[in-house]
Amino acid sequence: LVMGPYVRRILCDELGAPANSAVNCVPLEDFGGQHPDPNLTYATSLLEAMKGGEYGFGAAFDGDGDRNMILGRNGFFVNPSDSVAVIAANVSCIPYFQKTGIRGFARSMPTSTALDRVGKVMKIPVYETPTGWKFFGNLMDAGKCSLCGEESFGTGSDYIREKDGLWAVLAWLSIIAAQKRSVEEIVKNHWARFGRNYYCRFDYEDIDSRTAFYLMRDLEAVITERSFINQQFAVGNHNYTVEKSENFEYTDPVDGIVTRNQGLRLIFTDDSRLIFRLSGTGSLGSTIRIYAESYERDTSRIDRDAQVVLGPLIAIALKLSQIHDRTGRRGPTVIT
């Protein structure tokens, strides 16, 4: 973990955190036999430590420190889509933005639209880009973006033109210090103000590349039929009507370059979304990612279990893609 020495120097030496609060900070080529991704699936030791209630703030980084996961007391998980939205809504608490102001926000297309709702209230433009940090870099170079994030646990600002997990943690600590609230209180206050974007990603890894290609090709043919618009799906007591369906493409507002085939997405009339993306089409197989998102404005319904809320949408995604039948899988490899 090359990030370890930076964590010790900044959080422990400079800011006074106890030395034993920095864990797994010795750089090792094999990451100590652990998986480097900072999510609930792989950062289980941190999650268990936070569940005990002794600590009020926890963070995990990947090997080079560009990605981050934020946890609150009792293991309260901050979805990375919510994390960037919370930072955006509280830029006034962060010294860097107090000096520079805000030019714009940006998120990748699969990232939840929580950031869009902040931008709308703050009257700050929000750019929706394909997955890949280079698209954010273009916006930053042109002075259009000050804060950006991806659902894959990446957050960054224009001071470096890259994602920086430790910067995101410092931003969170600044917000906590200014508001004198817990992580959970900050997030729930954010939901009460802007509504909650229930969100989840399912990864089906190591799928035969040929199978994955044809699955996505056939799914695209279904959702891009003109008759698919306004189609209704009923799951239990839930009814969803398709408002828009497409293979996402992006026209860069800086250089005009068009990037196509960036993921299949369905947008429903209630602002729910389903997204399907194919990645890793190499010799080791492919990964199909399914993203489900549902927006809730009713403050009495913003504290429910995300898996329960998103269940009907996930059922639609499985039915449309037929991913279990076509891959022989019973479920995803990783859920975040």
TrEMBL record:
Annotated compartments: Cytoplasm
Keyword NAD: no
One of the record's GO molecular function terms: phosphoglucomutase activity
Keyword terms of this UniProt record: Cytoplasm, Phosphoprotein
GO CC annotations, alphabetized: adherens junction; cell-substrate junction; cytosol; sarcolemma
Pfam families: PGM1_C_vert_fung (PF24947), PGM_PMM_II (PF02879), PGM_PMM_III (PF02880)
Family listed: Belongs to the phosphohexose mutase family.
Protein name: Alpha-D-phosphohexomutase alpha/beta/alpha domain-containing protein
Organism of origin: Scyliorhinus torazame (Cloudy catshark)
Phylogenetic placement of the source organism: Eukaryota, Metazoa, Chordata, Craniata, Vertebrata
